[in-house]
User: Which sequence fits this backbone?
């Protein structure tokens, strides 16, 4: 080297900013450099609302929290930003600019330059103004189509990531145990395998787009007594292990979810937020989860206020931290000054703070938030003039044609035809009576976590932000030559009878009466379905059953259409309606999907993810019950549903035949294979949903009469047949045995190939042989399906 040549010395960057160093080394160095207050600052969030003018986000004033002083908080750093898009209506581009400017301030204010991790809701689409409102999760379950749900998750994740969001608070993996619970619409169904596979597909979609998926609510929330929100959960360890936990296990193992949210409820006196055996012992030590555990909103404070197991905020913080909750959401309440003081005076070990901090910083490092080239400007604003906010308005479209097409596909696959006496598809009626409270209501297709119903209702002067055609609109387009007369009849839950006479008169003068009933989504009693909107009985809200019964007394054929968040008993309509069409809050394209089924443009393929009760008072009841849970001579209450789990009709006919089982016996560590033929013997293309159930005639502990262990969709043209092959591992017969361990027992199994839990088409018996075998979370989880065309005769 020439000594006269000057060598420019590049300043060394801090170890934690060096992407060439391992994440572990970077995080360790950063933790070592932090003060206690800087550590705890990474463990809480601040609830903000993005500015519609593009300025910095402002703290959201919530009635459960005190005001937050950002100037005082930010110098020590900030772990999370809570719902920047899901708090107030804001143009997406200006929201993205507001978030970027807020992140710039956060990073510039703390001495390590660490930005916050931004999270938002995405239960049925990105919960932002102007974003696509997809069908609710109960509709995802009705599709029995994990591939389409995976594509939907990826689309939602891409939209969130494009505007600067890192984490999505979804999916809900609670298994329905009582349909009176208000949050049934947020669930995927009443079967753990269906919930697990569909929920895992959604997680895979979100994570493929770079969004941290958050599994909730861990665990037992849906098993609350009497279906009441936040009520205690009365499940035993076997029900918890075999019904409630498997979806979470699957989504972590196969979905790659990077976050878990605790449930509000307590089980046998132990709140989930304080349950070390659950949040650390099972989740981390057994399953190997290495992501973050975030608190459901206010759940740590609830340890003091609702559960009464902490005397003060510091006690609540220490209990939750010890159990394994890493991040307090939505705001700082317990993990700020109370936690720091408890550590300083020795009540809480600093090692627990470091444990949670390591997980939080590792996630931030993996997201690129510690890199020296981190840029607060999201991809959707690349190349934009950020100094001219007014010019940005309308630049970002979160509801483009591809999104809407995907939303329609999900909605179409989720429509369930419950009954049909031949009235459907409608044969070009001249006069249609369109009746009921949801016939001409734009928001009747939306769940409670959609932006218009969750946030927009508090801003009545703000446009919806998305197109929401009513069923009146889409039927007018579907039947352009028909005369459509609309009469509301009654409201959703007002009990008003004054319009029923008019509705009946309109029906008398029509060729067919379409009565559109169901729910209004809302929060905490502001709706008939949604969080805090629990039902005393599964009777249609308000005077809707009265309206329905009045119409059934007429000679005009009645087609009952349901836009709802839960299943309802329909009384006489089960037998007397010409047809019943069930849709669970199908999203912004939902009325197009329903109109297509009514006209026959779409052949329905949806299947029930929850049973429809015959009577309103037989809850809790699901198909997944032991023998004593079903109808018997020792009780006058018959919980047999009107329409069973997995049920759904088509406009074509499917025949199942020629079952062959490769072996009559298989070892407890082996597998067996079944092949059979499904043929479309009707006159139009359609999709059959093959469902695989196991029945264990004699087990060491009580088992459900049957349980779903696999399913596949079979698409067939008229006259076409496919040979379906399914390989069933013995692991699928495992359950929690007498000693609390999961076991595969030798003995006979009945394998049911069915069109629903009440419609067995083919049955095989296979005997498992050999020794009793214990399995764990690494067991095989799925049957393997394959399809081959059958030559036409």
Assistant:
């Amino acid at each position: 080297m020439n000594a006269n040549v000057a060598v420019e010395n590049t300043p060394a960057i801090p170890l934690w900013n060096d992407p060439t160093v391992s994440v572990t080394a970077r995080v360790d160095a950063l933790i070592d450099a932090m003060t206690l207050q800087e550590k705890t600052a990474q463990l809480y969030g601040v609830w903000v609302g993005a500015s519609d003018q593009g300025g910095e986000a402002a703290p959201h004033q919530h009635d459960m929290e005190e005001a937050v002083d950002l100037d005082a908080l930010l110098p020590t750093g900030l772990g999370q930003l809570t719902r920047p898009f899901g708090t107030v209506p804001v143009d997406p581009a200006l929201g993205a600019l507001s978030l970027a400017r807020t992140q710039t301030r956060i990073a510039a204010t703390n001495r390590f330059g660490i930005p916050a991790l931004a999270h938002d809701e995405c239960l049925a689409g990105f919960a932002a103004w102007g974003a696509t409102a997809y069908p609710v999760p109960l509709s995802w379950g009705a599709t029995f189509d994990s591939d389409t749900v995976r594509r939907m998750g990826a689309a939602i994740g891409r939209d969130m990531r494009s505007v600067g969001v890192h984490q999505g608070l979804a999916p809900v993996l609670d298994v329905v145990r009582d349909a009176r619970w208000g949050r049934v619409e947020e669930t995927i169904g009443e079967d753990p395998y269906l919930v697990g596979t569909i929920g895992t597909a959604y997680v895979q979609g979100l994570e493929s787009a770079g969004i941290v998926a958050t599994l909730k609510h861990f665990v037992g929330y849906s098993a609350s007594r009497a279906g009441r929100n936040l009520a205690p959960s009365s499940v035993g360890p076997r029900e918890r292990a075999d019904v409630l936990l498997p979806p979470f296990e699957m989504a972590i193992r196969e979905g790659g979810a990077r976050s878990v949210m605790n449930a509000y409820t307590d089980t046998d006196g132990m709140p989930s937020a304080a349950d070390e055996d659950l949040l650390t012992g099972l989740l981390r030590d057994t399953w190997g989860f290495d992501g973050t555990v975030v608190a459901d909103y206010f759940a740590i404070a609830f340890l003091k206020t609702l559960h009464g197991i902490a005397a003060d905020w510091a006690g609540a913080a220490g209990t939750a931290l010890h159990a394994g909750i890493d991040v307090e959401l939505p705001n700082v309440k317990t993990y700020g000054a109370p936690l720091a003081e408890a550590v300083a005076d020795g009540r809480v070990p600093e090692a627990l703070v470091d444990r949670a901090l390591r997980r939080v910083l590792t996630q931030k490092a993996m997201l690129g938030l510690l890199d020296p080239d981190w840029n607060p400007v999201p991809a959707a604003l690349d190349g934009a003039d950020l100094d001219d906010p007014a010019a940005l308005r309308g630049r970002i479209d979160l509801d483009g044609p591809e999104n809407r097409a995907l939303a329609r596909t999900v909605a179409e696959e989720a429509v369930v035809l419950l009954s049909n006496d031949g009235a459907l598809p409608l044969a070009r009626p001249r006069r249609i009576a369109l009746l009921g409270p949801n016939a001409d209501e734009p928001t009747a297709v939306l769940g409670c976590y959609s932006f218009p119903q969750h946030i927009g209702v508090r801003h009545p002067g703000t446009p919806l932000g998305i197109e929401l055609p009513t069923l009146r609109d889409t039927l007018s387009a579907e039947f352009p030559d028909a005369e459509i007369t609309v009469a509301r009849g009654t409201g959703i839950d007002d009990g008003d009878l004054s319009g029923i006479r008019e509705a009946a008169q309109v029906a008398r003068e029509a060729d067919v009466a379409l009565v559109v009933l169901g729910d209004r989504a809302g929060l905490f009693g502001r709706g008939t379905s949604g969080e805090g909107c629990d039902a005393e009985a599964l009777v249609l809200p308000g005077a809707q059953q009265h309206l329905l019964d009045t119409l059934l007394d007429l000679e005009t054929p009645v087609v009952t259409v349901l836009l709802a968040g839960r299943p309802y008993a329909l009384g006489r309509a089960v037998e007397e309606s010409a047809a019943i069409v069930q849709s669970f809050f199908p999203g912004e394209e939902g009325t197009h999907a329903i109109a297509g089924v009514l006209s026959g443009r779409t052949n329905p393929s949806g299947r029930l993810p929850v049973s429809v009760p015959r009577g309103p008072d037989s809850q809790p009841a699901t198909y997944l019950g032991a023998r004593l849970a079903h109808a018997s001579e020792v009780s006058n209450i018959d919980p047999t549903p009107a329409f069973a789990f997995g049920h759904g009709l088509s406009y074509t006919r499917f025949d199942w035949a020629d079952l062959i089982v490769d072996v009559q016996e298989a070892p407890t560590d082996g597998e067996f294979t079944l092949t059979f033929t499904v043929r479309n013997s009707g006159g139009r293309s359609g999709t059959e949903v093959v469902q695989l159930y196991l029945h264990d005639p004699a087990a060491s502990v009580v088992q459900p009469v049957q349980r779903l262990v696999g399913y596949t969709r079979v698409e067939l043209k008229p006259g076409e047949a496919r040979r379906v092959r399914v390989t069933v591992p013995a692991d699928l017969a495992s359950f929690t045995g007498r000693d609390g361990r999961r076991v595969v027992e030798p003995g006979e199994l009945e394998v049911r190939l069915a069109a629903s839990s009440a419609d067995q088409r083919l049955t095989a018996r296979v005997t498992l042989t050999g020794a009793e075998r214990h399995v764990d979370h690494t067991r095989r989880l799925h049957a393997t399906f394959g399809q081959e065309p059958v030559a036409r005769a």
